[in-house]
Write a structure and sequence with these properties.
This protein has about 800 residues and is mostly beta strands. It is about 10% helix and about 50% strand. β32 and β33 form a beta hairpin. α3 crosses α4.
């Protein structure tokens, strides 16, 4: 009866048809636990076909919850274990699979080996698509690789969207295609690091096509556009790369080259650089340091990138050329060029070249290095110098410094030794030397010291700057000139003086120059060297004849109280014979009556047989230039040649101006003595310019220096001046002159208010005759210097033929 009907008593046998979920089957419809009508079915050890192309081994039930299953589903090479399959006519949903496994298939359509748990799966058989979604766990595949994303399985293969995590590298893409031992990804980003949790070593900033093969353990990456920006964060570098390859076993990334279109538009492109991939430093302070390479290899274990096919790198104003086009970017981001790099200073003028260099470049304006500089002198002799410190200064100009020891025997050229530092500056065409130089010579009595200097040196024409107070290596003062000691004259040419109290007769400074044709070292200003007739002192040393000569303003080392001497001209000293001669213009100033000066001038001028002074003599021209300057001296000479000077220069207006006077030093008498004719220029502005006979002697005496001047126009016409110990004694052959001198009041002939005092007066005949006797006894009156042509060279001096072999009292000055 219906009153006693139980749910177990209700059953409806029939055939179940469920679209394409599985084949029609005979089933009995019963009341299910929730009073819905349905059935349950266990496939047992056998599987049934579901959705035409899958096998299901499960417990299958039909209730008010729909057609459900619990068990194992096999589709293609995939095996799914789940507690709940929701089966619909066109799809299947698995809310949470206990496991998902994909077996590797290497033939036909390839599939990798994949394991996963807890996945949500949605299968659309009619669309040939099974979507496997990740939950809190990732997919394991390719042994040690994980996929963090969603998969799509079909008969055409396996694809995915997400991140491939290969332990030290990952690829992110919305389109990953899997094969049995490989995968590829379009529009992907690649990242690589050394350690699992370490900092990234390689990052693509632009999408690339990725292809990773675990059989060959390589990855291939191609830019989707003209190039892809690849960053190397640890190495602080980025590159515009067309393609690159990842070698897993060798821990390397190989970057390809190619002529990238943007390279020509890069802001810091350098003319002459390579065609290929551009690498740009991202290091702090690197200021867009960059280079272009044909290829490169990045070792992410060592953190170094090695590039090849690099033509050059510019840093500051230097062009740096790697050896064989190779360079290394180290783990700190520094560009390292080792062993045989080349550095060219000044990218515009290309002034200096350093080869065999080691270089570390840290910025577009910063680098350091060392290398070898080839110094080539005027004889083309090459000397290699180690430059241990090469870097740009704050203004971006490249500098290089090297050290040269005395033991190295380095020569600026065959005539100069050098020790010290060499400095190359990109703005200077020639190297700068700072240290000490020594001349090369063979004269036994001269001992040149090392002279400190700092100047730019042209190897083809060495000139060394010598200041007014030069010093040697030990910073002790040295001298250039001739010195008067108590009883002798001696030279100092880049050497020390003998005694502190010695008087310097001439001094020269400026530049030290050597003329290899004349074998002469010269010290003078550059202007004087260029024009010997210009004002200024000049000192010359002939290393062949061992003669030292000087020109310009000369001191005679005298102390004559109120009698003042001012000399210009030339002095010559023979190192072998120790003889010294002078050719000077001598201005003598002392208190003297202007009328008597005019008397003497008129007397000389009245004698027509007297020869005129040669106003074209080099010593006369140079002396006037020294006193007046070139322009005024030229005008004065022109007017003098016409016989009348309109405005007589104050510089030439002296009590007595002797404009041609040859002197020799007499060591026996400790005096300067004249030889030959004496040129009288003017007396207190009264111009004469006549040659007369006579004697001049300037004597050095312990009791006081003396000067005697005897001017003889004829046997019956002469004037004598003799000064010693504050007294000037004067006598003439003209009695009228003597009478006028005697009549001058004493107070007009005397300076008594200041020390030292001074008085001039008539001389005794005894003093006059005594001086003449002394001069005649030493033979001065009879000696005449042999004729010699004036030499116009900057280094005038005596030819060997005119230098006596035996001691004599005369040295001829040309």
């Amino acid at each position: 009866s219906l009153d006693h009907l139980e749910k177990e008593h209700f059953s409806l046998p029939g055939r179940v048809s469920s679209a394409d979920n599985f084949s029609d089957m005979s089933r009995v419809i019963k009341v299910q636990p929730h009073y819905s009508h349905g059935f349950t079915f266990e496939t047992g050890y056998s599987a049934i076909t579901t959705y035409n192309n899958a096998e299901l081994q499960a417990n299958i039930s039909l209730t008010n919850k729909g057609l459900r299953a619990s068990g194992t589903l096999k589709f293609l090479t995939a095996t799914i274990n789940a507690e709940d399959y929701a089966m619909y006519p066109d799809s299947m949903n698995i809310p949470k699979a206990k496991s998902f496994t994909l077996e590797k298939q290497t033939q036909g359509v390839e599939f990798p080996d994949i394991q996963s748990e807890g996945n949500k799966i949605h299968w659309e058989p009619n669309n040939d698509r099974m979507n496997i979604y990740k939950t809190d766990k990732v997919f394991n595949l390719f042994n040690d690789t994980k996929f963090d994303g969603n998969l799509s399985l079909s008969s055409k293969g396996l694809s995915g969207k997400g991140r491939m995590d290969m332990n030290i590298a990952d690829v992110r893409s919305d389109s990953v295609a899997f094969r049995s031992e490989a995968f590829s990804a379009d529009e992907s980003l690649f990242r690589l690091r050394v350690a699992k949790e370490g900092a990234y070593q390689v990052v693509t900033a632009d999408t690339v096509h990725s292809s990773v093969d675990f059989t060959t353990r390589t990855g291939q990456f191609q830019a989707k556009k003209d190039y892809a920006l690849v960053r190397f964060p640890e190495t602080k570098l980025e590159a515009q790369v067309a393609d690159f390859t990842w070698e897993m076993e060798n821990t390397k990334i190989n970057l390809g080259g190619g002529d990238l279109k943007d390279a020509a538009d890069f802001k810091y492109k350098t003319e002459g650089e390579s065609q290929g991939t551009r690498y740009i430093s991202t290091m702090y302070g690197a200021d867009s340091l960059n280079f272009v390479a044909n290829s490169a290899s990045y070792n992410y274990s060592s953190g170094q990138l090695k590039a090849e096919g690099v033509n050059l790198i510019q840093s500051a104003d230097a062009l740096i050329f790697p050896n064989e086009g190779k360079l290394t970017v180290n783990e700190k981001g520094l560009l390292e060029l080792s062993d045989n790099a080349k550095i060219i200073f000044n990218d515009t003028l290309r002034q200096h070249v350093i080869h065999s260099a080691n270089v570390s470049i840290s910025g577009r304006k910063k680098f350091t290095g060392s290398g070898i500089y080839d110094y080539t002198d005027e004889t083309n002799k090459l000397t290699q110098i180690d430059m241990t410190n090469i870097s740009p200064d704050k203004s971006g100009k490249t500098l290089a410094k090297g050290s040269i020891s005395e033991e190295s025997g380095f020569m600026l050229n065959p005539f100069y030794r050098f020790q010290g530092d060499i400095l190359l500056k990109s703005e200077n065409k020639f190297p700068e030397f700072e240290g000490a130089a020594q001349i090369v010579q063979e004269c036994e009595t001269l001992h040149p010291d090392w002279v400190r200097f700092k100047s730019v040196v042209n190897p083809a024409e060495v000139e060394i700057e010598v200041g007014e107070a030069p010093v040697n290596k030990q910073f002790a003062k040295i001298y250039n000139g001739l010195f008067l000691s108590r009883d002798s004259i001696y030279p100092a040419f880049l050497s020390q003086r003998n005694n502190y109290n010695d008087k310097q007769l001439i001094q020269a400074s400026g530049v030290l120059h050597y003329n290899r044709d004349s074998m002469i070292y010269t010290i003078a200003s550059k202007g004087k060297l260029a024009n010997p007739d210009s004002a200024g002192n000049l000192l010359a040393f002939n290393r062949n004849t061992c003669i030292i000569s000087g020109e310009g303003r000369i001191s005679l080392g005298e102390d004559l109280g109120r009698v003042q001497l001012n000399a210009v001209g030339k002095i010559v000293h023979n190192l072998n014979t120790k003889e010294t001669a002078f050719d000077v213009m001598l201005a003598v100033d002392f208190l003297f009556d202007a009328g008597l000066s005019s008397f003497i001038a008129k007397k000389i001028d009245s004698l027509p047989d007297l020869t005129g002074v040669d106003l074209r003599r080099p010593q006369y021209i140079r002396g006037l230039n020294e006193w007046l300057g070139t322009k005024q001296a030229n005008r004065f000479r022109q007017e003098s040649s016409l016989g009348k000077v309109r405005n007589f220069p104050d510089q030439l207006k002296h009590t007595l101006l002797l404009n041609q006077l040859r002197l020799v030093w007499d060591p026996a008498r400790h005096s300067y003595r004249s030889v030959g004719k004496i040129g009288v220029g003017n007396l207190t502005g009264n111009q004469v310019n006549r040659l007369v006979d006579g004697f001049v002697e300037i004597s050095k005496r312990p009791g006081g220096d003396m000067i005697d001047i005897y001017l003889k126009m004829s046997d019956n016409d002469w004037f004598y001046f003799g000064y010693t110990r504050e007294l000037m004694q004067i006598l003439s052959s003209d009695q009228d002159f003597n009478n006028r001198l005697v009549k001058i009041p004493e107070k007009q002939r005397k300076v008594a208010d200041k020390k030292p005092g001074y008085t001039y007066m008539i001389s005794s005949a005894e003093k006059y005759y005594q001086f003449l006797a002394q001069m005649n006894r030493v033979g001065t009156n009879d000696q005449q210097p042999p004729p010699a042509a004036e030499q116009e060279q900057p280094m005038p001096e005596t030819p060997d033929a005119n230098v006596p072999k035996e001691p004599t009292q005369v040295i001829e000055i040309e």
